[in-house]
Specification:
alpha/beta; seven-stranded mixed sheet; 9 strands; globular
Length: 320
């Protein structure tokens, strides 16, 4: 049943992806206007994140940025469906510029392994496809809550014969050992470094000046294996009649091992500030407060569904 549902979702995604780009863009912009007009949870999460990250923005400036983030997020969603359901060669044609590829090639040639830290910025799925076109790689991912969602994710990332090129590794327990083995063998691993780990699985470090629970896995991998760490991202640089155009960029993260989570967050923040609209501000990055913090969860309760609020209320009252 799970696989069948995942196949249906894939067919639906493929149907949406076949729409002319002008239609897709108009549909995405309509969704963004709906998010903004209804001021639902998505808009509230974006607004709260921008309040934390850019506290000096005037309210009117912040609302303009919220609208820009929502529009870009909606377009990125449609773009991702296109990436997942079209041949990678066709997708890679949208990369019009490349910077730092020599760093990537040199890192592979060194034989010490490569860790690509890919922030939630621009199109990280396009980056995955570019990497898979150059080398076998392992991708660390946080499994969705839904089994169907996970089956769909696995299907779309190997839909065009990439199963022998891309190893998808769940961000949990024993599977993490796969990453160490691959890096120690000179392989390439892709990690989203701004994915919030579970409480107790990371360390706090400033991100836009606010303490954020940050994974330690990447720096531990670098320390134990001596692998080269590169920041990698595909940045939208233009919109054309056929879809968006991107620039592929690689940058060194020289202190990724020694500087740990602080260096990692600083690198991600530097990328996010290039064009804030392209960063994933719909994610509750600061939902786990630092020990001793008086702030608490800044998204609670208005950025959560009513069902979660009711469940918390029953727990507080001791109601089963």
């Amino acid at each position: 049943m799970t696989d069948f549902a995942a196949r249906l979702l894939y067919l639906l995604a493929a149907a949406v992806a076949r729409l002319p780009w002008a239609w897709s863009r108009a549909m995405a912009d309509g969704v963004a206007r709906l998010w903004m007009g209804r001021d639902g949870r998505t808009a509230k999460v974006v607004r709260r994140n921008l309040e934390l990250a850019y506290p000096d923005l005037l309210p009117a400036e912040r609302e303009l940025r919220v609208a820009s983030v929502l529009r870009t997020t909606a377009r990125q969603t449609i773009e991702t469906l296109r990436l997942w359901t079209r041949p990678p060669a066709k997708n890679l044609a949208s990369i019009r510029q490349a910077q730092g590829v020599d760093l990537f090639d040199a890192a592979i040639a060194s034989g010490r392994g490569v860790i690509v830290a890919a922030p939630h910025y621009g199109s990280w799925e396009l980056l995955n496809q570019w990497l898979a076109s150059r080398t076998p790689l392992a991708i660390l991912y946080a499994p969705p809550d839904s089994e169907i969602g996970e089956a769909f994710l696995r299907r779309v990332r190997t839909a065009h014969g990439d199963a022998d090129r891309v190893t998808q590794v769940r961000a949990e327990g024993p599977a993490i050992r796969q990453l160490f083995k691959m890096v120690q063998g000179g392989g390439v691993v892709g990690i989203l470094p701004d994915q919030q780990p579970k409480a107790g699985d990371g360390e706090f470090a400033p991100f836009f000046g606010v303490p954020a629970l940050t994974m330690t896995l990447l720096s531990r991998l670098a320390q134990r294996t001596g692998a080269t760490v590169l920041l990698g991202y595909c940045e939208r640089i233009a919109d054309t009649a056929d879809g968006p155009a991107f620039a592929l960029r690689f940058e060194p993260v020289p202190d990724a091992a020694g500087g740990g989570v602080a260096a990692l967050n600083a690198a991600v923040e530097r990328v996010a500030r290039r064009d804030p609209a392209q960063y994933q501000w719909t994610y509750k990055r600061w939902s786990i407060p630092a020990p001793g913090s008086l702030r608490g969860n800044p998204y609670w309760p208005d950025c959560y569904p009513p069902s979660a609020q009711r469940e918390a209320s029953r727990a507080d009252q001791g109601t089963p």
